[in-house]
Amino acid sequence: YEKLIGILSIEATVGNQIGVQINSTLLAEAYKIWQEYEPETFPGENQVHDHGLFTFDATWLLIKSLQQYCSSNNNLSSCLSVVNSTFCFDSYLTNSDLFLKTINQMKFLGVSGPIEYHENTTDRTNGIFFLLQNIQPSSNGIDFI
Question: In this structure, are residues 104 and 111 in contact, taking their beta carbons and an 8 Å threshold?
Fold first, then answer.
């Protein structure tokens, strides 16, 4: 533990700063469903890690994008066609460039804030913030500061 002192970490987090929107209605509904169907795994509303919210939004983005992509494609079987599907690492989605274009056109308010992507960017355009933390000695041993 002593060798960890001084390490800096950068962690993505949802923004609860002024001006950042979080879809509290959707988040409350997601918590309600989680509590109903998996109560033994639900840690409590204040104990859900931000990465869980990002995962929820990423999954919803993929679902909505696939729905949009397939609804604009006249041939449903080619919309969902995967090549070399016997081994997942060798597989690829046919017309993936068109699917990625659909993802880049999606916009919605997710549980972690506004979701919107653009070509040639590696992150969301807004709604996400980063914490810079430093490991330092504390009364409990070491802690993030």
Answer: no
